[in-house]
Design brief:
Residues 10-189 form the Ketoreductase domain. The protein has helices at 20-31, 65-79, 102-127, 152-171, 191-195, 198-205, 216-227, 249-253; strands at residues 11-15, 35-40, 49-50, 53-54, 56-59, 84-87, 134-141, 176-183, 238-241. The chain has 276 residues and is α/β, with parallel strands linked by helices. The two termini are 34 Å apart.
Length: 276
Amino acid sequence: MALTIDLSGRVAVVTGGTRGVGAGITAALLDAGAQVIACARRPPDRTPEAAGRTARYIELDLRDADAVGAFFRRVRAEYGRLDVLVNNAGGTPYRLLADSAPQQAARVVELNLITPLTASLAARAVMADQESGGSIIMIGSVSGTRPSPGTAAYGAAKAGLDSLARSMAVEWAPKIRVNTLTLGMVRTELSHLHYGDEAGIAAVGRTVPLARLAAPAEVGEACAFLASDLAGYVSGASLLVHGGGERPAFLDASTADTGGGPGGAPHPQQPASNDR
């Protein structure tokens, strides 16, 4: 059996799919043959394209539940089906809890947890009526698996998102598969805002066992796999795409020679961007 990811004839929606991580996901699904609708609040300067094909952009505010329902009904009416939903839209500013108002934290939780739930419910209404069902992919974060100072509400929402995906995978089986990609640091067009110049980005990359940040295309390839028949028995899973995680701080604090591995400064807190 050839291990080829083929999404020809399938229709995919990527929320926040016009820039950063989302653009990488959109391009990978296009490259695998899918028709892709990328939705976001603001039109992109350039719509993602790959393999000689271009994604379709439709404006959508995911915080408007009525608009979300209308969007997915439009997809069904115009394309006749929906096979893949990637819940990528999200993000947060860097803000310590003591400097935050409850309303600010609530908006972060809404964007990163409630809107994926809203979109998934609307997508299910389409997928459940199809003999082939569908695949829903949540874009999670390592911020939901460890302390996340400065982005605590975001981390809590991402932890909730992974739990939500596992419950959906049970409730909506066998027709709909639901999985999470748990991302570490990804290099996007906004990375310089978080890490400074090329030297700063390289220094942050060296704190990761694979010695670099991920590329959006690599996230997209993992999404294409989970959306494809190659992952036909994968549901309720959380796939770590984080380059090996974070080197334990005690290894760098010790004065002993450990015989190898990356050293350097402690891992900086990564401000989560609006790309995911």
